[in-house]
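This part of the workshop introduces the protein records we will be handling. An example says more than a description, so a record of this kind follows.
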Amino acid sequence: MRIYLAVFLVTTISMIPAVSAHNHTSDTIITVDSTNLRFSPQSVTINESEAIRFFWSGQILPHNAVEENGTFDSGDTDSNEDYRFVFLQGMNGTFEYYCEPHRSLGMVGQIVVNALAPAPNNTTSEVNQTTMPMEEESFMPFLPLQSLIPVVLLAGFLRKGRELNH
């Protein structure tokens, strides 16, 4: 019986997807060049629906990042910063920003956000409809179908074990 439980646990754990709540690997990171009191890079280009991340730590002088028209604001100046902002669809254009205490010293930057291409029209051909893979759906929207398989197997093993003990 213990072997069945061990198999169940290993199977269940291996089916749980590894998800990070802070998986921002595609963010464009802007840091501080403290030697020259500049953002680095000073100018970036991204697309709508992408994010920028102002990230620095251990700075002697505290900094922040404030967009000229109030689109984003990292808050009070800080020596350690990890501020993320996502430019949603429709937020394209050029955004000028600065560090409040060091703006007069030239600590300014620019983010150019490109518009996404318009979505294709909804007409589909029969070829596209037949080649698109169908996704499996669970009858419980918060549980994927693959997660239910080990539960059903364990229930069967437990029932079989009880029948053998009686």
Q: What stands out?
A: The first strand starts at residue 28 and ends at 33. The CA atoms of residues 95 and 111 lie 5 Å apart.
